[in-house]
Specification:
The complex is a heterodimer of chains A (457) and B (515). Chain A is α/β, with parallel strands linked by helices. In chain A, 37% of the residues lie in helices and 14% in strands. Chain A is built from 15 helices and 15 strands. By secondary structure, chain B is of the alpha/beta class. Chain B is built from 16 helices and eleven strands. Chain B has a seven-stranded mixed β-sheet with strand order 1-7-6-5-4-2-3, sandwiched between helices. In chain B, strands 8-9 form a two-stranded antiparallel ribbon. Chain B has a two-stranded antiparallel sheet with strand order 10-11. Classes of the chains: A alpha/beta (457), B alpha/beta (515).
């Protein structure tokens, strides 16, 4: 039976093609592969399911064993967030023309290139940096790439990062940097959750390639000393890599205004579903400095003119700097990253505009304040654990209750509690990181507080 | 020229030019009055210096105009759904089944948080586990990680594993060289470079693939391993590959197989039989997940059992009927990306392999090779086309041929011909990765998704453009004409004084020049 995904199944068509090639069978075309390297027999795979209905029932049957966050009340964050996804964002990023395009060039994919340039253009306004690249895989890999760039640009082999770092981020840095770069962690203040600036001052030296700070940090605290950290870095000839959650940038100072050399963060809050982590996308911004741009392997698109007067064209900015040309001679690894999410984020920012981004940021701050205070009013709970301001996450510490036990009890009541920090930050004791966003209503938060109260009683 | 095709040309303004101040396209849900009353000044806790001083200069546009804008841009994009896109050789453009797009938009996929308790994500963990089993069967290797979010990230992952392996044996300092070949993908060099290796590149011999002697000369006690494709970019299969892997092993190195594109040899030849210790597959190439305009994507890295301890954390384990994430991996290289990777891509590839089964998978490979060779046969009719290296080579997957003769005759080169394909409704054809060893290169790849009619139409277009070049070179040099944009001023892309990556840069230049 011909498979619905494969044309050219009709024997007469195959014959015609083989005749044109001048061979008897497809087997003849595999002559270059020595027989001892040929796989003998049938691959040990399950039998195929060519019927779409049966396939769909089967896969849906497996996937329905999952519980979607939309079917419960979830307060998980820690690098991936349940935000509102405007319907227009979903419409745009399901367009088959975009979804099934790839590395097509200027003349086949004019629209895709314009959309990616527009992402750079509007996102640059949000972060107030002159250059924005096609995003990397996620916040962690974007940060790692810029730290590596700093090493390449300064020739120094030490970087300073906050100890208040998600475990995932720490492990990405370990793989990407630690084999030849010393990654030193700067402690956080135990009361505020902010970077210990005195510790930063004593750790920095003229051997430091870059200082990395982020807001919010892994404890949910807005690192409002970022400008000081940038200044300390610059005083020692080090570069400053500043991470920022874009959902707060309608109201918070932008990385560019803080003096960042590189800005990084995740686009996921700007219109991407979480998809078990598949919605992440790591933005990168930098100065319009050819040497800095040269150190980054990710694509950047540039606007230019065409033979038709008044028409915009778009193409790859300095393609020769990428690993496609430099290969093994001094280029970081680039390639396919997360272009579809960049187009989506451009649409999200276009939809929201300055007012929408301000309202989003203010609403996050207000809800988080409300939720942290309500939870903190429960007996046996400290929330927020840190006095530093929160954007959309805060740490909750139980006096006596084990986080996993509380989570299990909440789960039975249809609530996913905050992320257990016992692995990421064992020093924080019975702590978890809770995220509240614009998807949470007052009733949701009140229900959580009442339920948590019952569980802890 | 084909009278039928005309791409949409909307001449869309830039996103930043849409709308009018005061318009908006979305209203995020406002907090209720009680919440607002609880924190009447939302920014009270933020030090004044850390508040945004000027609103971001974002578009102010209503929803209908914004949606229309992006729809129009999509219409100016020749995705594989709307155009025959086998110009992108080595990228394995193929049909991405629509049913899979519906599956990944189930709430039970798109609305999962990656830190949910395992009890609540048994379905997605099962898909990840099942896909891993399938890839083990297809490669013959023992374990896979689905965490790398692209093919080049998978190569990088494998290079990191090679580094960790030698470090674990106390040879990390000494074994600092990776051997690759110049017809392997550029990430086979940049990945190892990023992982801290020096890279030695092998050049092709007279048959189009590296000679054994070249490999022998490159091997030493500094060799950490080899990272290579086969067939290479040229579509030429190196028949001595088992000898290559044997020699690298003898020298103490590991063998890494870049199988980003394995389309022509699925079920035909596997990494294990060729002696490889590691390999990777691109789920967005061979395994049908759409390329998403350059990601999100997935490169699945596979290893033999003895290297599994180095895989990035976590890996999915099946214990009884339950699926678990194993984070306890003390020798792991770390992480390549946050969480488990792009899980939605795994759903698509799992469904695709399942739809095909062992016979369908083999039919994919056989049809791809049939299509490649039929296309090659038709392209012999293109004036000025030649095949580098012995013409007895039958291409597997893509192939790299040359229009040098046409260039010499007409002044029209492969990039010019390629560009003009857009006038026929085809994606321009990929030339070559650098360096351009084959002059005036073209690298098409007709995967199994394309019919004989598709291939004939594409070949006819190539013939037509080449004939037009012979008749009137300027006609082709100034093309294309019927797509969304005319030939660009490419010099402005490379000149720091002229390049425009954002309006901010344009405004800064304007301020300098007084425009």
């Amino acid at each position: 039976m011909p498979h619905p995904y494969i044309p050219n199944s009709a024997p007469e068509v195959r014959r015609e093609m083989l005749d044109a090639i001048g061979v008897d069978s497809v087997e003849d075309l595999y002559r270059p592969i020595p027989s001892e390297l040929r796989f003998q027999g049938r691959l040990p795979l399950e039998e195929g399911i060519p019927e779409e209905g049966r396939l769909r029932r089967h896969v849906e049957g497996i996937l329905r064993r999952n519980t979607a966050t939309t079917d419960v009340l979830s307060f998980l964050g820690a690098g991936c967030y349940q935000h509102e996804v405007p319907a227009v964002c979903d419409e745009i990023n399901r367009r088959g023309e975009f979804v099934t395009s790839y590395a097509g060039d200027v003349y086949g994919d004019h629209g895709r290139l314009q959309a990616l340039w527009e992402f750079q253009d509007v996102f640059a306004e949000l972060i107030e940096m002159d250059v924005v690249t096609t995003p990397n895989y996620d916040w962690s890999t974007a940060a790692a790439m810029c730290l590596r760039s700093s090493v390449m640009l300064t020739g120094r082999k030490r970087v300073l990062v906050p100890a208040a770092l998600l475990l995932d981020r720490r492990l990405v840095f370990q793989d990407y940097l630690a084999h030849d770069v010393q990654v030193d962690e700067i402690p956080f203040d135990e009361a505020t959750g902010l970077l210990d600036l005195a510790a930063l001052r004593s750790a920095i030296g003229d051997d430091v390639a870059a200082v990395y700070v982020e807001y919010p940090n892994a404890l949910g605290v807005i690192e409002h000393q970022a400008a000081e950290a940038v200044e300390i870095a610059h005083e020692h000839g080090a570069m400053a890599v500043v991470g920022a959650d874009p959902s707060g940038l309608g109201v918070l100072a932008s990385p560019g205004s803080l003096g960042a050399d590189f800005a990084v963060g995740d686009l996921q809050p700007l219109g991407m579903h979480m998809s078990y982590g598949g919605g992440l996308s790591g933005y990168i911004g930098c100065r319009n400095d050819p040497e800095v741009i040269e150190s980054l392997p990710v694509f950047i698109f540039a606007k230019t003119d065409t033979l038709a007067p008044g028409q915009h064209g778009f193409g790859y900015l300095n393609f020769d700097r990428t690993h496609y040309v430099k290969r093994g001679e001094g280029s970081q690894n680039g390639g396919t990253t997360t272009a579809l999410w960049a187009i989506t984020a451009a649409a999200y920012l276009g939809l929201h505009g300055p007012e929408g981004m301000r309202e989003l940021g203010e609403g996050l701050l207000q809800r988080t304040r409300y939720a942290a205070d309500r939870i903190g009013a429960l007996p046996g709970v400290t929330a927020p654990r840190f006095t530093g301001a929160s954007l959309k996450e805060f740490v909750v510490t139980y006096d006596a209750h084990d986080v996993a036990t509380v989570d299990a009890a909440l789960r039975e009541r249809g609530i996913f509690g905050g992320k257990d920090l016992s692995v990421d930050f064992p020093s924080l004791g019975r702590s978890s990181l809770w995220a509240v966003t614009e998807v949470h209503t007052k009733d949701d938060i009140d229900r959580l507080v009442a339920t948590l109260g019952e569980v802890l009683a | 020229m084909s009278p039928q095709f005309q791409q949409a040309r909307w001449s869309e303004p830039l996103l930043s030019e849409l709308g009018t101040p005061g318009e908006r396209g979305y209203v995020p849900t406002a907090p209720e009055a009680e919440i607002a009353a609880h924190a009447p000044d939302p920014l009270a806790a933020i030090p004044p210096a850390f508040r945004r001083s000027t609103p971001p200069r974002l578009p102010q546009v209503a929803q209908p105009q914004l949606l229309r804008h992006f729809y129009r841009l999509s219409q100016e994009t020749l995705g594989n759904d709307v155009a025959v896109d086998f110009g992108l050789g080595t990228c394995t453009m193929k049909y991405s089944p629509k049913v899979n797009e519906h599956l990944v938009r189930m709430p039970e996929v798109q609305d999962l948080h990656p830190a949910q308790h395992e009890d609540t994500v048994q379905g997605i963990l099962e898909v990840l586990w099942r896909l891993e089993q399938m890839l083990c069967a297809i490669s013959g290797l023992d374990r896979f990680t689905l965490q790398p979010p692209s093919g080049s990230a998978a190569v990088y992952t494998n290079a990191s594993i090679v580094r960790a392996y030698h470090a674990s044996r106390g040879e990390g300092e000494q074994r600092d060289e990776i051997i690759s070949s110049v017809f392997s993908h550029p990430c086979d060099q940049s990945g190892p470079w990023s992982a801290g290796f020096k890279v030695v590149e092998l050049y092709p011999g007279p048959n189009g693939y590296p000679e054994l002697d070249a490999l022998k000369a490159a091997l030493s006690n500094r060799t950490a391993g080899i990272v290579i494709t086969n067939p290479e970019d040229t579509g030429i299969y190196n028949p001595h590959i088992a000898e290559f892997t044997r020699l690298v092993h003898e020298a103490g190195g590991l063998c890494v197989y870049d199988q980003a594109n394995a389309n022509g040899i699925l079920g035909i030849a596997r990494a294990r039989e060729a002696g490889f210790d590691l390999c990777h597959f691109n789920m967005h190439k061979t395994f049908s997940s759409p390329h998403n305009g350059m990601g999100p994507a997935m490169g699945a890295s596979g290893v033999k059992e003895e290297l599994a301890r180095f895989l990035p954390a976590p890996v999915v384990e099946k214990r009884g009927d339950r699926f678990e994430l194993d984070w306890n991996r003390p020798e792991s290289i770390g992480k390549i990306r946050s969480f488990v990777g792009n899980a939605q891509i795994a759903v698509r590839s799992y469904a695709w392999i399942l739809a095909l089964g062992p016979d369908g998978i083999r039919e994919v490979a056989e049809t791809a090779v049939l299509n490649a060779n039929y296309l090659a046969t038709r392209l012999r009719e293109v004036p000025g086309m030649s095949q580098p290296f012995p013409t007895s080579n039958t291409p597997i997957e893509q192939f790299r041929w040359s229009l040098e003769a046409l260039r010499e005759e007409t002044g029209v080169g492969s990039a010019d011909i390629s560009r003009n394909l857009a006038d026929y409704g085809f994606q321009p054809v990929f030339g070559s990765h650098h360096p351009f060893i084959v002059p005036e290169p073209l690298t098409p790849e007709a995967s199994e998704s394309f019919s004989k009619e598709d291939i004939d139409a594409w070949a006819d277009a190539m013939i037509d453009i080449a004939k037009r070049a012979q008749a009137d070179a300027d006609d082709v040099l100034e093309g294309p004409y019927r797509n969304a944009c005319r030939r660009i001023d490419a010099a402005a892309l490379d000149d720091p004084e002229r390049w425009v990556p954002t309006s901010r840069v344009e405004r800064a230049k304007g301020a300098v020049t007084g425009d």
